[in-house]
Specification:
250 residues; alpha/beta; Rossmann fold; nine-stranded mixed β-sheet; two-stranded antiparallel ribbon; 8 helices; 27% strand
Amino acid sequence: MSAEPDLFLGGRLRLRQPARGAHRAGTDAVLLARWLAPRPSETIYDLGAATGAVGLAVARLADDCRVVLVEREAALAALARENARDNGLDDRVRVVEADLLAPGAQRRAAGLLPATADAVLTNPPFFEAGGHRPSPVPEKASAHTFAEGSLDGWLRTCADLLCPGGRLGLIHRADALPACLEALHGRFGDCAIRPVHARADRPAIRVLIAAVKGSRALLRLLPPLVLQDEAGRFTPEAGALHRGEPWPPS
């Protein structure tokens, strides 16, 4: 574990993370945490929460929401509980140890009940086994890789946990957009896609997707977010998001 907590949201959130070399939250977590504007008194699930960066950021910025952090790895779930407590959020944040790809009966036994989330935020593993060279660090490999075809199962669990009309927010690699849309088809509609570029003259590296369970509304492609200027500094929009400010208007 890192000796000192990392600071998020301009210092408003202190996050203990595994030592460097393991999977650690960064810009992806910040973007996902700010992607869906919380509504009053919502219950928001952070699926694949690791140490809780996304869900805890939401809880810090929306003091009338309840947050459920779902993490499979016991050591990371323990860090998530510690982070919730250290930030004074443990009265509104619950940590559930569960495998999102387990059969429904096992998920329910772990405390994940259907139609209990108003919104779900998730950063699924970015790679399928055999499709890339995994990290030699077991914890990092586990966070980044899952079995072939598992993205569909992961998003099926998201749909199961959401109430009718509930909202999904996810972040993934830009080249995974077709697979994401295929897995969302028939379960979600009103998809809004925002490409994320490291710099304005480079291809997108991430996509942020918002969708509504059961909706039949058409897909929308939103303006891109550019993270850095020519000098490698955060753009004003990216800097504002890292400080915990709302998403810039489209």
